[in-house]
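Last lecture ended with a question: if I hand you only a sequence, what can you say about the shape of the protein? Today we answer it with a concrete record. The protein is Inner membrane protein YpjD. Below, first the input exactly as provided, then the predicted structure, then a couple of comments.
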Amino acid sequence: MDNIIAVAAALLYVLAIATIVPGLVHQVGIRTKTVSASAFLALAFHGWLLSDLIIESSGQNLSILNVASLISFIISLVMSLAMLKTRLWFLLPVVYSFAAINLSGAAFLPSTFITHLEQDPKLLIHISLALFSYSTLTIGALYAMQLAWLDHKLKSKKALSINSNLPPLLMVERQLFRIILIGNLLLTGTLLTGFVFVEDMFAQGKAHKAILSFIAWVVYSILLWGHYQKGWRGRKVTWFAVAGAFLLTLAYFGSRFVREVILN
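The predicted structure:
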């Protein structure tokens, strides 16, 4: 049953992508209702699949593939809701592609990492903040890459104004720093709850998560300071945003990937 749900969700994500891409390539109108219907149906099936894969009688299965699928779901949901107000057509194919890949991996390559969050509400708070901070800052990295691409096109004097499906450069920049600010606040909460609630945070095999997450927090804090105090823009912003997301990816998935995928 889970495989059928996964296939349905993946196909709906693909339908949304197939509806968006021609509008970007050929600079024609995008059928917003078709994209919205496909995306939200895909999200419904995706959420259904996650509930089946994660919630088990023995606890919560937070395997690396399930967590990756959950993060993709959060990002896709946030971006789909934002789509209703802003032009995110350039980013949605990327987001939906990763969602389809991650949910397929979780469904067809099952793995197990059982936890018991119902017995430790404090750990649940910490993990929830970690998931939302990583998802938010990943969205920030996508915005930064979109900003760099738009800036490159404008500097190369290619007429972006013809394509009404692309967002204005300044709007993307404002949204980028708003997203990074929110994500860094969530990351701050993640680090604080980790220090307070997680007793073995610096135990062997876990210390790298705290260290890399803290380094990422420093990177984002410098980026925010540089923008609001020094007026940083352009390529430097992109490098900082992508570097921070890369550090968090290593922190959240590095050792789990080695233990669950390579050594298993």
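Comments.
1. The chain has a mean pLDDT of 87.
2. The helical segments are 2-26, 32-54, 64-83, 92-108, 121-155, 169-197, 207-230, 235-262.
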